[in-house]
């Protein structure tokens, strides 16, 4: 479900030139396209389980933890099934109020539990004093969730909170969310979305408060051999939505370069496709050709060797930043060297 329009975006759109408005409208349709993948059936099934549980007043809450590498499309997938779920649409209740069954929040980078609590409280409409304690923050959060009729809370980027190095940080984490799950009058169900390391929250919980309440679903990565054909069909379908043809044959080699450049991540494949389409529209072209793909990759990589140009493209090694762009090859080489050095030092110490 797309974000609601508002007066600012409507006015900005009206002030675009006809040509720019046309491109804007095409890109809106392109970006609204959703691709069903091999992970969708299981994700949908588990989200349905959570929503059914949240609809039963007497049932204690539980946690669904969905993990995958960054830019794998996990947040888009979760939002797709939550936003289209009829049980989670706001609805009117007594005294001219509105119930909001679903509440979403993203954990801020380098966040503590108190920081996450503050973020939740502010999004719920509270203005907190700096000296408010962490337990007081979550008391306010629990109370407001009940007031606004929320039964399901989604926390994205949960690894930001779980990065806390001390067991105290995890204890605060498990205690705060256990209280939400077990609230006698208003139990909350929770979906956490994060990187693979978020699963360590179960292993690191010495009190074992979370293990019985957490369902962990790790998304399977893309594979060129298994999913290349589906991605090629998706590219053709999205290009048709944009009114463009493919001037570049979607051969096995092209798809191999695309998968490698995107680190086998669906989100990055879509990002490059969107860049290539917008570049073609800006240029007034009727087809997306290899030059558009080259430019799209450079927007992600910000320089260096290009996976669509380099003869030995498989030797390009880049990582993915938290902002969704690619690291440089030098950064990856330095990281590999530092890990190798640390391993060597550790082995020397063990001797």
Could you please describe the fold and organization of this structure?
The C terminus is likely disordered. The strands form three sheets. A five-stranded parallel β-sheet has the order 4-5-6-1-7, sandwiched between helices. It has a two-stranded antiparallel sheet with strand order 2-3. Helix content is 50%, strand content 10%. The chain starts with 6 loop residues before the first helix and ends with a helix. It is globular. By secondary structure, the protein is an alpha/beta fold. A hairpin with a 3-residue loop joins strand 2 and strand 3.
Summary of the model, kept short:
With 351 residues, the chain is of the alpha/beta class. The chain has 14 helices and nine strands.
Order of strands in the sheet with the most strands? 4-5-6-1-7
Structural class: alpha/beta
How far apart are the termini? 58 Å
CATH architectural group of the largest domain: 3-Layer(aba) Sandwich
Main sheet?
Answer: 5 strands, parallel
> Residue ranges: pLDDT <50 for 5 or more in a row?
344-351
Annotation field: number of helices = 14
- Corresponding CATH superfamily of the largest domain: P-loop containing nucleotide triphosphate hydrolases
The best one-word shape is globular
Count structural domains: 2
**And the CATH topology of the largest domain?**
Rossmann fold
Mean pLDDT across all amino acids = 87
Gyration radius (Cα, Å) is 23 Å
- How many beta-strand segments? 9
CATH class of the largest domain: Alpha Beta
Hey, roughly how much beta strand do the residues contain? 5-15%
């Amino acid at each position: 479900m797309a974000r609601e329009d508002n007066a600012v975006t409507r006015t900005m759109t009206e002030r675009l030139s006809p040509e720019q408005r046309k491109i804007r409208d095409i890109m809106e349709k392109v970006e609204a396209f959703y691709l069903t993948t091999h992970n969708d059936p299981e994700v949908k099934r588990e989200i349905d389980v959570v929503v059914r549980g949240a609809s039963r007043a007497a049932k204690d809450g539980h946690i669904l933890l969905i993990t995958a590498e960054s830019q794998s499309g996990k947040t888009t997938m979760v939002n797709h099934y939550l936003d289209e779920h009829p049980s989670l649409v706001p609805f009117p209740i007594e005294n001219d109020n509105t119930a909001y069954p679903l509440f979403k929040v993203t954990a801020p980078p380098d966040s503590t539990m108190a920081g996450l609590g503050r973020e939740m409280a502010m999004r719920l409409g509270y203005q907190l004093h700096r000296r408010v304690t962490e337990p007081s923050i979550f008391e306010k959060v629990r109370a407001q969730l009940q007031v606004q009729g929320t039964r399901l809370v989604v926390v994205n980027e949960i690894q930001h909170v779980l990065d806390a190095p001390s067991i105290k940080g995890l204890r605060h984490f498990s205690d705060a969310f256990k209280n939400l799950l077990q609230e006698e009058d208003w139990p909350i169900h929770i979906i956490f979305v994060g990187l693979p390391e978020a699963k360590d929250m179960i292993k690191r919980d010495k009190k074992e408060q979370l293990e019985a309440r957490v369902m962990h679903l790790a998304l399977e990565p893309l594979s060129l051999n298994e999913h290349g054909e589906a991605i090629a069909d998706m590219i053709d379908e999205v290009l048709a939505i944009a009114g463009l043809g493919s001037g570049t044959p979607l051969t096995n080699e092209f798809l191999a370069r695309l998968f490698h450049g995107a680190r086998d991540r669906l989100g990055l494949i879509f990002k490059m496709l969107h860049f290539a389409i917008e570049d073609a529209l800006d240029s007034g072209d009727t087809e997306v050709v290899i030059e558009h793909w080259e430019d799209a990759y450079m927007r992600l990589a910000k320089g260096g060797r290009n996976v669509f140009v380099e003869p030995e493209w498989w030797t390009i090694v880049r990582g993915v930043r938290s902002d969704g762009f690619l690291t440089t090859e030098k950064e990856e080489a330095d990281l590999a060297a530092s890990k190798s050095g640390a391993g060597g030092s550790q082995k020397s110490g063990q001797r």
